[in-house]
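Z., the sequence and structure:
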Amino acid sequence: MKINWGTAIVIAFVCFISFIMYFVISMSTNKKYNHDLVVEDYYGEELQFQDDIDKEEHSKTLSTNISWKKTNKGIEISFPKNLDYKNIEGKVFLYRPSNKQLDFETPISLSNHNLLIPDKRLLDGRWNIKIDWQYNNNSYLYKSEITY
């Protein structure tokens, strides 16, 4: 049987489409691949995005921004020394990209300019830290990727 070039092109297209469809179906139905959104309320987070940008820009007006360092006890977050730590309030959110069960949020309660995130709450690896804080009715936001 002789196949002309038009039939060969149609067979090639059908084989290629079948090949692609096999991978699309196997990737979307296999439980090994998790296709969850990064956060549960993705669209609600999107609406807050401009507010976060404004807070981050406001943080750039500080003489010194928040800094952090790894210690034997955990992560020590240092707030600017020129601010009265008694007027600082807010929350710290640590997000683990590889496992959402490890995510946690901690309120900011300071007895000096430093806040300690205990070592027992953290596993080695990559974390995203988000500190949403207020000082004298001004809102600030600090975001960073850290490796613990």
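Residues 5-29 form the longest helix (25 residues). The radius of gyration is 25 Å.

Let me know what you think.
H.
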